[in-house]
Write a structure and sequence with these properties.
alpha/beta; 8-stranded parallel sheet; 10 helices; globular; binds pyridoxal-5'-phosphate
């Protein structure tokens, strides 16, 4: 068995059944994605639009569910709107309006997660709870017909300090509960907490994650720091 196949099979064996795995294939060639796919893995994540559309085009005969996990610029939404399965990185009403517009152009509904800033580093994108509340309460948001908010996403600080990472993940879980109670308590679609990567997925799962985004553990290290 190839290393990637073995990696992904071994990794999935460690996961509780209810956890969804997004295999993060950014920077890795399509041959590697095909190997992972051959084990039954269908959900793949990319963080750059350019790379995502190139890979989607080459692999369009496979039943892959593509996740956009990185920062998304409004002017690039149109390139992914026809096929993207889940956008993890919605951090403004303006972006959401553009996603809605492009979803309408493609006669579909696009599932989205609201990205929250939970890390101590200020380089990471995302909303805070006040901004999210304002977005969800706005009349403009209520008019959007072709986007569906299905949960939240966040990245913990890049640190060895597990206590800090756990506390950031618990913050995201608490934000999820608050939004669920205030805005989505009649919607069963609002159910995902996307948190946890190769180095912190166990803490994330213990803190309530439903969906982890894992690259290096499956595909090996990336050459560049993306
Ligand atoms: C790269 C990336 C991941 C996966 O990182 P690994 O450490 O390789 O598991 C997860 N989420 C986002 C947003 C990423 O950019």
């Amino acid at each position: 068995m190839s290393t990637i196949k073995a990696n992904i099979v071994n990794f999935k064996n460690q996961l509780p059944k209810h956890i969804k795995l997004v295999a993060v294939s950014k920077t890795h060639p399509i041959e590697m994605i095909k190997e992972a796919y051959s084990t039954g893995q269908k959900h793949f994540g990319e963080n750059r639009v350019q790379e995502l559309i190139a890979k989607q085009e080459e692999l369009k005969d496979l039943d892959i569910k593509w996740h956009l996990i990185g920062h998304l610029q409004r002017n690039k939404v149109k390139y992914i709107a026809s096929f993207v399965d889940l956008i993890h990185s919605v951090d403004s009403l303006k972006l959401l309006k553009e996603i809605n517009k492009q979803a309408i152009n493609n006669s579909r509904t696009i599932n989205c997660l609201l990205q929250f800033h939970i890390a101590s580093e200020d380089t990471k994108f995302g909303l805070n709870i006040d901004e999210a509340t304002e977005l969800l309460e706005s009349e403009e948001f209520k008019k959007l017909t072709n986007v569906k908010i299905v949960g939240v996403m966040g990245m913990a600080s890049f640190t060895e300090n597990e206590t800090q990472v756990r506390s950031e993940f618990l913050t995201l879980h608490e934000i999820f509960n608050q939004l669920k109670n205030s805005f989505f308590n009649t919607s069963k679609d609002f159910e995902e907490i996307s948190m946890g990567m190769s180095n912190d997925w166990e803490i994330a799962i213990n803190s309530g994650s439903t969906m982890i985004r894992v690259g290096s553990v499956i595909f090996g290290n990336r050459n560049c720091s993306l």
